[in-house]
Amino acid sequence: MARLTTRSALLVLADGRFPAGGHAHSGGAEAAVKAGRIRDAADLEAFCLGRLHTVGLTAAGLAAAAALGLDPYELDAAADARTPSPALRTAARRLGRQLMRAARAAWPDPELDALAAAFPGGAHQPVVLGAAARAAGLGPEDAAHCAAYETVGGPATAVVRLLGLDPYRATAVLARLAPVMDEVAARAATAAHGGVDALPAASAPLLDITAEQHAAWPVRLFAS
Amino acid sequence: MHLDHGHSHHGAVSADAHRPDGTRRALRIGLGGPVGSGKTATVAALCRQLRDTLSLAVVTNDIYTREDAEFLLREAVLPPERIRAVETGACPHTAIRDDISANLEAVEELEDAVGPLDLILVESGGDNLTATFSKGLVDAQVFVIDVAGGDDIPRKGGPGVTTADLLVVNKTDLAPHVGSDLGRMARDAAEQRGELPVAFTSLRSAEGVGPVAEWVRERLAAWTAAPAPTA
Ligand SMILES: Nc1nc2c(ncn2[C@@H]2O[C@H](COP(=O)(O)OP(=O)(O)OP(=O)(O)O)[C@@H](O)[C@H]2O)c(=O)[nH]1
Ligand SMILES: [Mg+2]
């Protein structure tokens, strides 16, 4: 059956209202705010830019590959290998499972059912995101865009809540980063065509370290 | 490697009344209401009163700590494996209404881990008068306010006060000290809620949570009596 790519489906999937659990995660922003590394919109922009070129690129590659229909077991193992922090692995699987629930409700699809059955504890979120995009009739570039956007959208919302940052300025940060998101998504989608071994493996060690510390805080607003 | 297609319904979407194996799932009751009104105290008292006759579990939605979960653990109202805490990212009402995925995970994990369960209580983080639970998460909801928050709260209404399946006005023992008029609260609540029930409680008194426990038992009887799974 031919799948028609629809831009509107991408909007539904990328919408912050898509009920996939992201609202409880800050993408490392809570730890960065507490450490004084994010104090204003300029800091947020630098933080997001760093995320885009590292974990964003990696997530976008995985999502694009899953949207292409590459083997989800291999992709999930590739995601594990690219996620050294146990806390972030746990968060990624949890979010993967939450996203799976929403995706199956939105775009019922036997491939999604099979993926859910194969990973009862949840596959890595970018892998599920790519599979969800595929079920929605979207392509690898779309999935990569969605992953890139989530990489910065989550922290921007979190910083608005944590610092009372002016929401217009936070949104302007996202708008300014749009060309970078496009570029990262394009690189990721191109890499995905080269197979699992060609996927980007960029990482941000400080995010891994602070994620471990954050997970041990007794008092925090965000789950990661 | 190739995945099998379409043989599993694991993680069924939304509030299906049945578990993947076809059995009826636990009744889920949400408890919401303003900060400090007595939600955790009500949950604790309900556990103590119901745990000998029912299989129970609790999900808490703390806003920035694990205090509610830790209180319940410390008070030992249930074994620790029957209590789960969900993190809500500074937005308690989102987790019970707009994006219920983390709470659904928690209730399903509890049923998988310690089930079968008769009843799961889901406590929301303390929020404002507009916070209500999604019907995709709970089967019925209790809104807990207290007399110390001002006796004009029932009159002000709002979705919690107006539409909750049970309105609890707690801390009646404090009414004389804070000058709250219980009669007025009852009249205003009746005006806002029509036929929907209201319970006045003091968790410091002998009757305590009794009226709420009674209501929970009725809901559970209705839930169990509902038609058996068809598919
Ligand atoms: N006097 C009196 N105090 C009560 C009563 N019920 C609860 N409290 C006290 O009120 C305080 C808040 O109770 P909680 O049960 O923690 O309230 P909560 O609604 O769970 O609070 P949050 O989860 O923080 O929103 C505690 O100190 C309780 O002991 C009551 O009926 N009378
Ligand atoms: Mg509480």
Give descriptors for this structure.
heterodimer; A: 224 residues; Urease accessory protein UreF; 10 helices; B: Rossmann fold; 16% strand; globular; binds guanosine-5'-triphosphate; binds magnesium ion
Task: Please specify the SSE layout and strand pairing.
The complex is a heterodimer of chains A (224) and B (231).
Chain A: H1 7-14, H2 29-34, H3 41-68, H4 72-81, H5 86-106, H6 110-118, H7 125-135, H8 140-163, H9 167-192, H10 205-215
Chain B: E1 27-32, H1 39-50, E2 56-62, H2 67-74, E3 83-87, H3 92-98, H4 101-114, E4 119-123, E5 140-146, H5 153-156, H6 159-163, E6 166-170, H7 175-178, H8 182-193, E7 198-200, H9 210-225
Parallel strand pairs in B: 1-4, 1-5, 2-3, 2-4, 5-6, 6-7
The structure holds guanosine-5'-triphosphate and magnesium ion.
| Distinct ligand kinds | guanosine-5'-triphosphate, magnesium ion
Kindly estimate the percentage of residues of chain B that lie in beta strands according to DSSP: 15-25%
Quickly count the domains of chain A.
Answer: 1
Question: What would the CATH topology of chain A be?
Answer: Urease accessory protein UreF
Distance between the termini of chain A: 40 Å
Rg value of chain B = 18 Å
CATH architecture of chain B: 3-Layer(aba) Sandwich
CATH architecture of chain A: Orthogonal Bundle
Low-confidence stretches of chain A: none
Straight-line distance between termini of chain B: 32 Å
Q: How many domain modules of chain B?
A: 1
Summarize the largest interface: chains and residue counts.
Answer: A-B, 40 and 30 residues
- Looking at the structure, what is the overall shape of chain B? globular
| Count, helices of chain B | 9
Beta fraction of the residues of chain A? under 5%
| Rg of chain A, nearest Å | 16 Å
Superfamily at the CATH H level of chain B?
P-loop containing nucleotide triphosphate hydrolases
Structural class of chain B, by secondary structure, is alpha/beta
CATH class descriptor of chain B:
Alpha Beta
Number of strands of chain A: 0
Pfam family, one (chain B): cobW
Keywords (chain B): Chaperone, Cytoplasm, GTP-binding, Nickel insertion, Nucleotide-binding
Binding site for GTP (chain B): 33-40
Function (chain B): Facilitates the functional incorporation of the urease nickel metallocenter. This process requires GTP hydrolysis, probably effectuated by UreG.
